[in-house]
Design goal:
228 residues, single chain, mainly alpha
């Protein structure tokens, strides 16, 4: 069951980073960025990703999204989700396969709903604090990316636009688009399809790694050699 609930959690964690691009740290290209471009790019990032962005994105909106995702999953039957194992670890009966995930979890844990609500609140609070602490590093990385990708003239044009009423409105809500209710609804609509696809995906992973020895085999073999 942990895997089932890890999917919406993973989707939620991906959202705040959706508009970011990562670059390999310490690359030559990054190390030789013109300081003047960095300075102008920093102003661009101030417009698009000001301090407090993660908290603004995650407080209230993200936990509502998680609630919606979990509710959507709870309404699916295990057959629809492609599941074969019950919360207790046993195979589902034909009768259980027609039950929704919420019904089965409630049978396994009468406090399931409250437990999940508390868990998501704690998770989001902790993730908000953690990601807020990482925000300065994210801003620094974004500054380098913008400075590397755009010329000073282009960055100045962006900043001139962001200084207008329209540009300011765009920049203010640029990241918030990714946690807009419509975007959240779109992401939640993907969960059933994702769940249905997971058994086939996992089967392909299993087939692709079938030539490898079972986990722990190499360690056990080495341990035996050391004992000898």
């Amino acid at each position: 069951m942990k895997k089932i609930f890890a999917i919406p959690m993973a989707l939620a964690m991906c959202v705040p980073a959706a508009a970011q691009e990562t670059s390999a740290p310490g690359t030559t290209e990054e190390a030789t960025i013109d300081p003047a471009r960095l300075a102008v790019a920093e102003t661009t990032v101030d417009h698009l990703f000001p301090i407090g962005t993660y908290e603004r994105m995650m407080k209230g909106t993200m936990d509502q999204m998680l609630d919606g995702m979990l509710a959507g999953l709870g309404g699916m039957t295990m057959e629809e989700m492609g599941g074969t194992v019950s919360p207790s670890g046993e195979d589902y009966s034909a009768e259980d396969k027609d039950k929704t995930l919420a019904e089965l979890m409630q049978e396994s844990d009468p406090n399931f709903e409250e437990r999940m609500q508390i868990s998501t609140r704690v998770l989001m609070d902790e993730m908000t604090d953690l990601m807020s602490a990482m925000e300065p590093q994210v801003r620094t990385t974004l500054t380098k990316i913008y400075a590397r990708k755009y010329s000073i003239a282009q960055l100045n044009e962006m900043n001139d636009f962001f200084a207008t009423d329209t540009g300011s409105a765009f920049a203010r809500d640029y990241m918030m688009v990714f946690v807009d209710p419509e975007m959240m609804e779109s992401m939640m609509s993907m969960v059933p399809e994702l769940m249905q696809a997971m058994p086939n995906i996992m089967k392909k992973v299993e087939d692709a790694t079938a030539h490898l020895p079972p986990v722990g085999t190499a360690t056990e073999t080495q341990s035996q050699k050391d004992d000898e």
